[in-house]
Amino acid sequence: MIRHKPFGSGHPYVNDTDQRSPARPQAGESVTLGVRTSPELTNVVCELAEIRSDGSVTHSTVPLSRVPAASRGQVVDGGHLASAQAKLARAASGWQTSLGPADPLTSYKYRFSADKPAGRKEHTRWFSYQVATWQPAEHALDITGTHRVIRDSVEVLNDGSRPLRVRFALPLASNERVTGFGERFDALDHRGTSLDAVVFEQYKSQGAHRKTYLPMPFAHVVGGDGWGFHIDTSRRTWYDIGASDENRLIIEAEVGPDAVNGDALLGVQFFDGTPTEVLQSFLSKVGAPKELPDWVFKLWASGNEWNTQAEVMRQMDLHRETGIPVGSVVIEAWSDEATFTAFRDAVYTPSSDGGPLGLNDFTFPEEGAWPDPKAMVDELHERDIRVVLWQIPLIKMRPHPQGQARNDAEAAIREGRLIREEAPDGSLRPYRNRGWWFPLGLMPDLTDPEAARWWTEKRRYLVEELGVDGFKTDGGEHAWGEDLRYLNGMKGDEGNNLFSVAYAKAYGDLLESAGKAPVTFSRAGFTGSQAHGAFWAGDEDSTWDAFRWSMFAGLSAAASGVVYWGWDFAGFSGDVPTAELYLRSAAAAVFVPIMQYHSEFNHHRKPSRDRTPWNIQERSGDETVLPIFRELTELRERLIPYLSEQARKTIATGAPLMRPLYFDYPEDQEVWDHPLQWMLGDDLLVAPVTQEGIKSWTTYLPSGDWVDVWTGDSHAGKQTVDVPAPLNRIPAFVRADAWDRMKSIFQSRP
Fold first, then answer.
1. Distance between CA atoms of 531 and 624, rounded to whole angstroms?
2. What mean pLDDT value characterizes the chain?
């Protein structure tokens, strides 16, 4: 076997051993060609034909050298690849060669051959590529709004057969800051850096790696005239934000082969005004958020080891016994881990045609994990606790599916419900997940209305008969590679980022069709996600760095139009946080739209790694955890009417609920020195303590008159103040003219 995939697995940041890199070479770039082979093959060579613009052809044979085989960012030889192909991958060999700088206007044809035992040869088919060059293209942009593109900066990358990318520059004044770009974990102001926009699952340390589940090709430019922009594309984009030229913002975008308007290949929208006006204009183009019910503002409780009805009820009983109010429980490990529609241990006759089942089709053994899920949901509702169930947009194929899972897979293939990929012979076959989570799974095309309906109808009984209130729509990042084909004809470069939007929409539509609010809880998204439910910041460790990164993520997501956002406060992975980190994070979460704790699966090892307040108290030995946490959640309960009122204003005006200070004070350069402060709605300024061992905390108060919510002391704006910061208090200030109506929230006593 010799395998060469010119475009690799589609991993946006790492090249595979068996791909061409770069996949679409530009003039002057060296090109690496690689293969993976079965172990018996030796002496791998590349037969190369170089075809110049004058028609002359040069033939050569280039030997390949052995290299460690790597796929999807994982080294295979001598390492571990988290996929169902790990054994085969470890047995395979990697081979590569590098070619000199590519000449402009030159085409290359190549194939690989190797020696087999007994003197035989094995060959691949022929592959080809054309070297691309950048060319001036004055009319490549379709611009709406104020024209801000620098004259003569527009270029198109063309390989002689089609345009590949467009590049252009925007001017940056010396005092302008550039912020937004969806959910970003490392900073608010990105000036002086480079970044891109592609949906990607970065497991933990997103701030260090500067990758995100929820990017958007949208940004605010604050501090000068006041403006923003949106690159009207679902393909990947790149941004050099004053990194190579401090006075320029250079944007590069993938484009399709066809024009979008006349000769234009890419739409660019400019918006003028304050940050709120810019955001509202953007949302009017891409879809505004929908108001969600007030219960989403209550505490969300979750633990990945709550995988039985008894354990869920035990944890909810502990909330009641400790006097800690809870509004919803997210149950992740509820299903059979095969269909993701049936409860574990449920007994039923599979639907032979892959059609939906109803609640009466299931029997729940008394000794099973979930002896009566309907009674459980009913009891939780009686306690005013909503139920959210976890989902994944894949048909699990490893181990080989049986029963209903097999019937579902066969029906999806037979009825054409799946995203497809190119096979080596150029035909289309069902896409097999290339990510490391549920590897080789099939992926329903939820961008297609009929396929989405087919998928969600299997879950309808959970909503209409069981009474489930929402879905945690996890794992929307699994569409990799431009060779993918969606049912409407989109290729992967255009459709992969949009999949996450369609995923949340499909489940929201299901809930609304059953008369419920569209409460989805997603980590992945893109432009358009603002209209679809709530979001959380994904997987993270219990560290102070992760705490700060998550706050940046929430503020940048809010600046991009996401209203209902939260994070696993104090982290969900690894050993439990310290009591201090837990309470500081919980205090900040009180003033974030979604307040949730959650913990990773730990195989039920002892001691427990649950992030419940009682477990943190037990693990830390700090007897103040429960009383302080109770005090914080009671404060959160009193804040709910304010949060509800302000969320409605947010949806009406565009001003974020969790609002970076530059929205209200765009001319105040001092706010950028305090990036992790925010306004919660119109009247409440929050300054969370994000460092360890703090006794007092410096807070910047912008212009206006402010009241310390804990002491009632008045402070003039345009100054920093140092305030005490005990663990049960987060520095917070209310606008003076709102103090009378908000005083009872903070100075209420039982």
1. 40
2. 95
687-722 pLDDT, tens per residue?
A: 999 999 999 999 999 999 999 999 999 999 999 999
One DSSP character per residue, 517-549 reads: ---BEES---TTGGGS-EEE----BSSHHHHHH
Q: Are 232 and 251 in contact (CB under 8 A)?
A: no
Which residue among the candidates 186, 332, 469, 474 is catalytic per the annotation? 474
Residue 457 is among the residues annotated as catalytic for this protein: no
Which of 201, 445, 539, 708 is labelled catalytic?
Answer: 539
Look at residues 257, 260, 249 and name the one whose alpha carbon lies nearest to residue 153. Answer: 249
Q: Is the pLDDT of residue 409 over 60?
A: yes
Assessment of whether the complete model's pTM goes beyond 0.85: yes
The predicted model gives 292-319 an average pLDDT of: 98
Q: Contact at 8 Å (CB) between 519 and 293?
A: yes
- The Cα 700–Cα 710 span in angstroms is 17
Is residue 477 flagged as an active site residue? yes
The full 3-state SS of 117-149, as one line of letters, equals HHHCEEECCCEEEECEEEEECCCCEEEECCCCC
DSSP-H helix ranges across 654-680: 661-664
In the residue annotation, 545 being an active-site residue is answered as no
Token pair listed for 182: 């969806």
Q: Pairing state of beta strands 65-67 and 70-71?
A: unpaired
Q: Is 640 helix (H, G, I), strand (E, B) or coil?
A: helix
- The SS3 of residue 85 is coil
Length of the chain in terms of residues written: 750
Q: Of 453, 591, 593, 452, which is closest to residue 533 (Cα–Cα)?
A: 593
Note the pLDDT tens digit of each residue in 23-68. 999 999 999 999 999 999 999 999 999 999 899 999 999 999 999 9
Continuous segment of H or E residues that includes residue 454 = helix 449-457
In angstroms, what CA-CA distances link 168 with 150, 222, 231, 632, 720? 7, 20, 11, 49, 40
Residue 698 makes CB contacts below 8 A (sequence gap 6+) with: 720, 721, 722
Residues 210-252 pLDDT 10s: 999 999 999 999 999 999 999 999 999 999 999 999 999 999 9
Six token digits for residue 487: 């049912």
Gap between the Cα atoms of 362 and 374, Å rounded: 11
Predicted local distance difference test score (pLDDT) of residue 49: 97
Question: DSSP of 467-486, one letter per residue?
Answer: ---EEEE--------TT-B-
Beta strands in 223-367 (DSSP E): 227-232, 237-241, 248-254, 266-272, 299-302, 328-331
Q: Which of the residues 18, 159, 477, 493 is marked catalytic?
A: 477
- Using alpha carbons, list the distances in angstroms from residue 203 to 13, 207, 271, 477: 14, 11, 34, 11
CA distance 411 to 406: 9
CB 241 within 8 A of CB 165: no
Question: Do the strands 714-716 and 420-422 form a parallel or antiparallel pair, or are they unpaired?
Answer: unpaired
**Which pair of structure tokens corresponds to residue 163?**
């345009």
532 token code pair: 């679809």
Q: What are phi and psi of 204, to 5 degrees?
A: 70, 160
Long-range contacts of 114-122 (CB under 8 A, 24+ apart): 114/2, 114/37, 114/41, 114/42, 114/43, 114/44, 114/45, 115/41, 115/42, 115/43, 116/40, 116/41, 117/40, 122/1, 122/2, 122/41
* pLDDT tens figures, 626-640: 999 999 999 999 999
Give the whole-angstrom CA distance, residue 197 versus residue 207.
15
